[in-house]
Specification:
The protein starts with a helix and ends in a 12-residue tail after the last helix. Strand 7 and strand 8 form a beta hairpin. The chain folds into three domains: about 280 residues, 2-Layer Sandwich (BirA Bifunctional Protein, domain 2), CATH 3.30.930.10; about 60 residues; about 110 residues, 3-Layer(aba) Sandwich (Rossmann fold). By secondary structure, it is of the alpha+beta class. The strands form seven sheets. A nine-stranded mixed β-sheet has the order 3-9-10-18-15-14-13-11-12. Bound molecules: glycyl-adenosine-5'-phosphate (GAP). Glycyl-adenosine-5'-phosphate (GAP) binds next to strand 10, strand 15, strand 18 and helix 13.
Length: about 500
Amino acid sequence: MNTEEMAAFCKKKGFVYPNSEIYGGMAGFFDYGPLGAELKNNIKAQWWNAHVHQRADIVGIDGAIITSPKTWVASGHASSFTDAIIECAKNHKTRADHLIEDKLKMDTAGLPLKQIDVIIRNNKLKCDKCNSPFKESTGFNLMFKTTVGPEGTAESYLRPETAQLIFADFKNVIDTTRVKLPFGIAQTGKAFRNEISPRDFLFRCREFEQMEIEYFTHPNHANTCPYLHEVETYEFIVLSAEMQEKKLMPKKMTAKEALDKKIMRTQWHAYWLAYEHKWLTSLGISPENLRLRQHLDEEKSHYALDTWDIEYRFPMGWKELQGMANRTDFDLQQHIKHSGKDLSYYDEETKTKVVPHVVVEPSQGVERLFLALMFEAYEYDKERDNVVLKLHPKLAPYKAAVFPLVSNKPELVKKAKEVHTELAEEINCFYDEKGSIGRRYSRQDEIGTPACITIDFQSLDDGTVTIRERDTTHQARVKTDELHREISRIMKNDRSLFTKKKH
Ligand code: GAP
């Protein structure tokens, strides 16, 4: 299935709609339908749970979308958050690196503007729309401008990343919580980028959401991770900068091997790459579809000591799902310089003030993960002649659906509604009495509902109901008062209830 087909499926089933479709649409913007809104919320809740609630060393904040424009001057976004744009003689604009990638199938990561122009000139690339030649490329700032207040003179920007709010609030967090280095500050929320050529459905949009952490350590402990032992034997596929330069194939290795061979430079990077990889696979992403790719020197941001991306094998190729840069103390130092405020941390052990280092910034886009999860889950089942969306139960929009076997028996309908009402107090649960039972199962399979509960005549006699499992169609009979327990098991992907019984 390609990206266009996925976009069509998402629209048809109410996951994602093109934005303002009735007015001709807005490229790069999307609206989430009833099922997409649930899935997106579930992804964010799982992320928050695994990165904030389950970790004693990370606290979360929720910063504003519009913030002082000085923030973006300090961070460097105002001057250098640009992509190369190229204009033809008839003023059609396109993104220069995408033009080269599409036409010449060349990787342009990190190429400077001048080199991009040389490639376009030497290969005589012309405008797709009018076949005229291109002028020199220029930098196009991706931040959306806005004005604040009634005069309309105070300019600001919609934030292009959530990360800077974490740095701007760093002092407030250390003053108001009891965090001790090493610790992280997490944030999820909207980010906006005026992408020159938004494309590939949710992969590159102009409005999206990020889930980011700035993980701070003492500068002297920027390579000592106390949690490394938890992941040392964890395996992932690695493509280092050196392997890319030597045109070698990616290699499976453990976190320890990556460190021992100095492929990964710091324990923190190895630890966090493993932590994130593990989290992604816990959501149902196959490890074969994930690889860790180190940025080439020319590709790295100026502030980054080392950057790795977790890439996913999308239908359009291996693409960044999550970035993980070592930003050192660059951002805090910039904000110290531009605000004139003391953003240091008092180290009680050494009785000195230090400016902590961000040893990793795990930065993940919700939309890209949403898309990857949909590709992983989508399966056409020939036997059922139907799509089965095998989302991890904890991500599924509806955790269960409740049906009366038939709708013309009031006593079955009454009982089914009672069961639904009770379950709905704890989980998002769907009630359906329309159509044949087979059709109702199919509708739930297509949208990923892991369990379908049917109330039949036996239910009225002995208080039991059937649960049918999405992936195998196996069924089991349970007492209604055991439903909550069984559904919680299914949420943990425990399918033991169904292993011996077949429909
Ligand atoms: N604070 C670091 C930062 O923002 P980034 O690599 O520019 O780094 C981080 O973005 C993540 O945000 C990416 O890995 C991707 O998942 C997501 N992202 C970035 N631009 C996006 C876009 N235009 N559309 C959808 N997701 C995007």
